[in-house]
Design brief:
There is one protein chain. This protein has 457 residues and is an alpha+beta fold. Helix content is 18%, strand content 25%. The longest helix is centred in the middle third of the chain and has 14 residues. It starts with a helix and ends in a 9-residue tail after the last helix.
Length: 457
């Protein structure tokens, strides 16, 4: 649960506070003492969000004791502290209803109140909120609050004596709680990729039920990852060589999917289909379809998706089912999608590596046709392998039909990937300087979340 939901708000929080803007550096201790204590947004590690508070005192090194506005306190390093300065366009999460919104007006920021818009699809609900009733996702802070950092010299830790104050007026949040608030559908701006295991006995019925539940609750069904991510490389050598880099994989949704802020994969169980493996590599949560189907029948959708996480899969080398490695706050800000390749939680096992995929089945088809045989399901699965490797962090991936079309010597690649050890290409030389692996090894590493020992051929 979030800090906001697990800890009660104190009743002595002032209705208004001093301006949050920092004053110019002063040269005397008397002038410094006259300044108000620095107001900040600081990280609460228990749920990975930033909350408003006041810097109380310097502890050890660059760690400060933060008195949060809800009455809690914690020691936080200065690198995890930002000025209490909300701006128009900032993505925030409201304490009431756990709704994601965007700041649209900061004219009352000196009184620690901002106006927030919550997009409900066809309508935008705009309302005023106290800063203390707002939290900010850590990922949003990292992406957009870089110019709101603090230095040791700019921090004021002296707390002024408590002054007598008038009885605070009810907060806007409490006033709003007395007024009926329109409940937005739980899957607004949420997309789902659905995949089922081969052994599912009623795939059509199960998928129809899941898709109906998604749409009924405001979500959208995404047919394939390529509908929201750019997955285009460069062909050469008469389409016998294909090259892509990590920079070419970006969140670039088709028009019908613009506006998405979070995505999930739904499945009846873990599997090794391309859609599932791409999600694992990107750190996108793969959830049991029971989250949607059963709760839809009961007309309830729980906000917590974590209990429905599927295993990443069964690792052959570890002889164990392995859990997924995902950000448990996934989806609390749109940066999870817009900066998908910057997800630091996902296991980027091939980070900074250059990899060659050797075999005709690995080379993706050109955008407008090209080689024949594109309807073969097995070949289509093989052609997604280079993209899975890109999603696993490789800086550059090359796919060629034959060794002679590789752009450099085989020893220059960190790994040479073949389809299977039993199908070793005849033109692949025996060379101790070339590390050859097969697709099952790549999949097993992805599932295990680590680089496993390479099996000798």
């Amino acid at each position: 649960m979030s800090k906001a939901s697990t800890r009660s708000k104190t009743s002595d929080t002032p209705a208004t506070r001093a301006a949050t803007r920092l004053r110019p550096t002063v040269s005397t201790s008397r002038a410094l003492a006259a300044q108000p204590a620095t107001r900040v947004f600081a990280l609460w590690k228990q749920d990975g969000h930033y909350y408003s508070g006041t810097i109380h005192s310097l502890q050890a090194g660059t760690r400060y004791l933060i008195k949060f506005d809800d009455g809690t306190d914690d020691q936080v390093d200065v690198t995890r502290i930002r000025r209490c300065e909300l701006r128009v366009g900032d993505a925030v999460i409201l304490a009431q209803g756990d709704l994601r919104g965007t700041v649209v007006d900061v004219s009352q920021m000196d009184s620690e109140s901002v106006r927030v818009g919550v997009d409900e699809g066809p309508d935008v609900m705009i309302s005023d909120h106290d800063v203390k009733d707002i939290r900010v996702a850590a990922r949003a802070i990292l992406s957009h609050w870089k110019d709101r950092t603090l230095t040791v010299d700019s921090i004021v830790t002296i707390i002024r004596p408590k002054l007598l104050q008038a009885t605070p007026s009810p907060s806007k949040a409490s006033l709003m709680s007395a007024t009926p608030v329109k409940q937005k559908k739980p899957f607004t701006k949420t997309g789902f990729v659905v995949t089922l295991t081969v052994g599912n006995k009623n795939p059509g019925q199960v998928k129809d039920n899941v898709m109906l539940a998604i749409k009924h609750n405001g979500g959208v069904v995404i047919d394939d990852w390529s509908s929201i991510f750019s997955m285009e490389g460069v062909h050469s050598q008469s389409n016998k060589r294909w090259i892509a880099s990590q920079e070419t994989f970006k969140f670039r949704p088709k028009p019908e999917f613009e506006g998405l802020e979070r995505v999930f994969l739904l499945a009846d169980d873990y599997n090794q289909k391309p859609k599932f493996l791409v999600a694992l590599a990107l750190g996108i949560p793969c959830l049991s379809q029971e989250w949607i189907r059963d709760d839809y029948l009961n007309k309830q959708i729980p906000s917590d998706w974590q209990p429905f996480l599927l295993p990443a899969g069964f690792s052959e080398q570890l002889s164990a089912r392995v859990s997924q490695l995902v950000d448990l706050d996934w989806g609390n800000c749109k940066e999870h999608l817009s900066d998908i390749m910057s997800n630091m939680v996902a296991s980027k096992l091939f980070s900074e590596k250059t990899i060659l995929c050797l075999g005709a089945d690995f080379v993706p088809l050109p955008p407008r046709g090209g080689r024949k045989g594109g309807s073969d399901t097995a070949k289509e699965a093989s052609r997604i392998v280079p993209w899975i490797i890109i999603c696993m962090g490789a800086s550059r991936v090359e796919a060629v039909t034959e060794v002679k079309f590789a752009s450099k010597d085989l020893s220059a690649y960190d790994y040479v990937v073949i389809k299977d050890y039993s199908e070793r290409p005849k033109d692949l030389p025996e060379d101790d300087n070339v590390t050859v692996v097969h697709v099952p090894w790549v999949k097993d590493c992805l599932i295990a979340g680590r680089l496993l020992p390479v099996i000798d051929l």
